[in-house]
């Protein structure tokens, strides 16, 4: 189970809207000056994701929850998204090369196969996303923010 903490934005009718912060993997790496992942993380404008998660327990805004998703569903979705365009690229490129015997035809077949694989993944993903085992679940719930009180010790016992 892959776990991540999220903050509740709202709760209504058994469904919690939670926000997960995107963590950059380069914050503490020694080679962050020359890292390509750091540059790619800076390009993306989105720093948080908002998703709806079923929750029978009432939650309040600002409350922390731990979400979990099965590894198999994450691996299955990554396989669908990455491998279907790649397989389409190689298969149609090889078929066009065998049929027409020209590199330009192989290039056109590869492009068509890659686009076709992408469209296949795009069409299948809503059907797979509706499966219950592919949905994130709430594993644990933190205290509501109004129940947590922090007292400053330096201001309590001043004469």
Automatic annotation (TrEMBL):
Pfam families: RseC_MucC. It comes from the Bacteria. InterPro entries: RseC, SigmaE_reg_RseC_MucC. The keyword Membrane applies. The chain crosses the membrane at residues 74-98, 104-121. Keywords: Membrane, Transmembrane, Transmembrane helix. Coiled coil: none annotated. PANTHER family: PROTEIN RSEC. This is Positive regulator of sigma(E), RseC/MucC. It comes from Kosakonia oryzendophytica.
């Amino acid at each position: 189970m892959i776990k991540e903490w999220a903050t509740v934005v709202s709760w209504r009718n058994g469904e919690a809207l939670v926000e997960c912060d995107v963590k950059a993997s380069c914050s503490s790496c020694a080679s962050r000056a020359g890292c390509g992942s750091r540059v790619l993380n800076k390009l993306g404008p989105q720093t948080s994701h908002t998703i709806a998660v079923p929750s029978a327990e009432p939650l309040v805004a600002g409350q922390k929850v731990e979400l979990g998703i099965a590894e198999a569903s994450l691996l299955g979705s990554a396989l669908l998204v990455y491998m279907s365009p790649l397989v389409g690229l190689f298969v149609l490129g090889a078929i066009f090369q065998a049929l027409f015997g020209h590199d330009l035809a192989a290039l056109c077949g590869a492009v068509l196969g890659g686009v076709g694989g992408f469209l296949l993944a795009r069409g299948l993903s809503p059907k797979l996303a509706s499966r219950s085992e592919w949905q994130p679940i709430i594993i644990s719930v933190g205290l509501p923010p109004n129940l947590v009180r922090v007292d400053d010790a330096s201001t309590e016992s001043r004469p």
